[in-house]
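User: Hi! Is it possible to get a structure for several chains at once, not just one? Here's what I have:
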Amino acid sequence: MASLSRWKVMSKRDFNLRVKKLVSDIVQAEELEISFGRILEEWEEPLGPTPFPSIIDLRRWDQILLERYKPFYMPFCDLCCLCTMGKCDLTAGKRGACGIDMSAQQSRIVLLAACIGAATHTSHARHLLEYLISRYGRNHPIDLGGNIYLEAPIIRLVCGIKPRTIGDLEDALSYVEEQIISLLAATHTGQEDSWIDFESKVFHTGMLDHVALEIADIAQIVALGYPKGDPEAPLTEIGLAAIDQNKPVILVVGHNVPSAASIVDYLVKSKMYGSVEVAGICCTAHDVARYSPTAKIVGPLSWQLRFVRSGLPDVVVADEQCIRADILLEAARVKAPVIATSVEKCMGLPDATGEPIDSIVEKLVSGSMQGVVFLDPERVGELAVKTALKVFPHRQKVRSLPSDEELKVLASRCRGCRFCERACPNNLPIAEAMSTASKGDFNALAYLYEVCIGCGKCEGACPRNIPVHSVIVQGARKIWRNERFKIRVGRGPIQDVEIRNVGRPIVFGEIPGVIAFVGCSNYYNGGREIVEMAEEFLKRNYIVVTSGCAAMTLAMAKDEEGRSLYEKYSGAFDAGGLVNVGSCVSNSHIAGAAIKIAAIFAKRNLRANYEEIADYILNRVGAVGVAWGAMSQKAAAIAAGFWRLGVPVIVGPHGAKYRRFLLGRKEDESSWYTYDARTGDRVYAGPAPEHLFVAAEGKEEAIVMIAKLCMRPNDTSKGRAIKLSHYIDLSKKFFGSLPDDLHLYVRREADIPLTLKSEVIKFLKEKGWSEKPIPDPTLLPRLVRKR
Amino acid sequence: MSMYRFPEPWATAEIPGPKKAAILSRPESLVAIIKRSNRRLLAVGSKALDKVEGIDIVELIRLLSSTKLFTIVASRNIAYKLEGKGIPIAASISVYELGDRLRDGNWTGFDGGGKYGLTAFIGFPYITLWLVLSGLKHFAPSLSTVSLDPYYQPHASWSLPNVRGGEWYSFIKRVVDSLEVM
Ligand code: SF4
Ligand code: SF4
Ligand code: SF4
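Assistant: Yes, the chains can be modeled jointly so their relative placement is included. Here is the combined structure:
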């Protein structure tokens, strides 16, 4: 009989057997490797322990994190209504008919959200990859330019493969799809029942999500010719006033770029580029601007209602994700036809994919069809442009906003019941603004515009049928008629040479942190807050990276000289740089940068070596994600990927509606021991980072929390002193005093910033502080070098 | 009587489930609750310096503080400002971190003196408090919580109904007056 001393299943489909020693009646062999399906290609890097990890392969790492960062669940509802044995009341310790309790139920909901998010990115990646392969061939090379050799850090880390062509990306994509199905299956009644395992699965989902993001973005960068890590990627225009209303305007909205790219191609081919505006909302806007920097960006997803109602778009081309469910209704009100280009959002429209373009245009222009499903990305450009050109003279930019004269009349219909405020997610003082507007003073409406997320819930709530959001938008017309800013288009990945330059100062703490402002535009108190947050850290020489709607919001404010942040700060991944990586899927480059620091600077093996790299990042790379307006399930999945990788994430007040945080307890000393990799001793390393996922109540708290979460056990004294000087300064600025937990972050006297020495030492004395060692930190016993 | 005096969440859609806060319709009820509790905590939120429903919240906090019956803690951005206004603050802490500690049966409080018998909340964004109270309702069922904001908070043990500013002020004032003659 054969004895197998070591084996590894790579995935169900692609089976790989490695045998250290095989002894049987008929054969004796050593170091035998048998593969069915795709063979793992060898390259200079040895294969790490977890290629294509299954759901439980990284469970131990998750448990290490979850022992320290425990979930605090805040259920939306006391009930579970997922099966017909329910509804079940799970209040305060009760169990449902299936036996589940509230902790497990809440973690199940978190997993469901993460699965929805990851499935959406994965499906997006699949659509994109299939399209790009059909157009450019499987063998289209993954060439990210001369400055990026480590070109797919997440895929290498997770899967252990090194994709060289876009066709190679399919291996990783199939793996992700397979895993997501089983993660979703774990949420079925009678499956997983332990919160800690649900949470581990959430982390797994997040990790897979990052693989999908990387697949999608690498594929589109290399095939569509986007900037390849260029710090000087061009600037383009953003804002309602950037859109030329004297031209036909095509609004592209969503996340999947082929249809928008097809519009640009058709305009170029037919020599009409410049005579038709291509204006984007949400991530399609980012990506079409990366494809053609003369395309314009209207704004983040919360700009949908206001832009459509302004009447500027002549045609709406919707692809997938984050598109309003009432876009068809809204477009109908301004007589703009809609072209749905994704199987995932057909809007009840007829499928006209096979029909001749001119006949579809005729129906759309005559209004006999309000919209169509059109699933041919090669021809959708022609359809959209021809429709826009024909509709434009008829429409006369008809709007669904009230006129200035109507404003006062509408506002005076208000009877002050405040049902709108009770529906408004930001609880905005609408009734008061209506009252002043009825007297002709629109200043309060203009204030509301700045803090309104454009959801429209106020309108559904109003018993007087006042189009509240429209009233706000029209009342703020002076603001948006000047809404025109510059944004640097998404540059994609971080260059290897940039990582080489900043790796050391980041890991030693001399660059005090890398802060990623990411996610959607569901802001509790307007977008201005993240502009202020970002600038606070840019001025302090942190590296600020950004993506998605947050990257747009960062552009939408000007200084006294009329410059946006993108005009003021360099686009380099360096101290004081503001790096727009691009759309949602470009978040992969932010995770990728952290991974590349471990690989390029620290020379850690990357390949299929997830646990070690995450341990490295958690303990050494001072990176923090800030998703101030996070709204979607996709944002939940992205955050989960960062958690497993050891990067803490802060959300804004609405982000608390993800219903659970992962919180450390700084005063619980036992939580904060690590191994010293040099000696194997268990050493207290301090509460750094303190939390893995938390909301801040407001901007000030977030700013100080960001500075704190950038500290890492590995900081040198010089680095820690720099980080502490910011933490102390910001705490004084926003909280009026030294941080009350300062003693937990000073390990030795040399950590104390020189200029603050006397007051810090006085504080430390009061706290009974004593010096502590600085370990070579790791949470993984196997990484201890001395045996 | 206020038109909001229904036991409805202020934010219309925030329907909680079967277990809902008992409404504090009379100041005497709250006085009795406070009197029978020991180790009372008052958590003050990030809106404490705002005017809400036309009332300066800080005036209500000053009144509650004058009873000397509460250990007062406040959100970080607000704590030092309250101290500057003469209100003694025992600790500054984010409400999420506070919630996380309150649900921990082994936590011995800010002074090491043991669990709190009653935690009252004032000055919070509605949804923030809604969520934290939900976490406490489910995972610290033996903890008593009171929402003193002028909006019905269904996840608390007891909550004010949705009230107008004037009613809110006079409710708190009457509670404090009764407590002071204790
Ligand atoms: S899944 Fe369980 S808790 Fe939920 S409704 Fe069904 S039986 Fe009840
Ligand atoms: S559209 Fe604006 S004002 Fe209306 S409910 Fe939404 S956020 Fe509030
Ligand atoms: S719901 Fe309508 S009538 Fe009532 S306050 Fe709001 S705008 Fe006025």
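Chain A has a mean pLDDT of 94. The pocket of iron/sulfur cluster (ligand 2) is lined by residues A 423-426, 428, 430, 448, 452-458, 468-469, 472 (CB under 6 Å).

User: Great, thank you!
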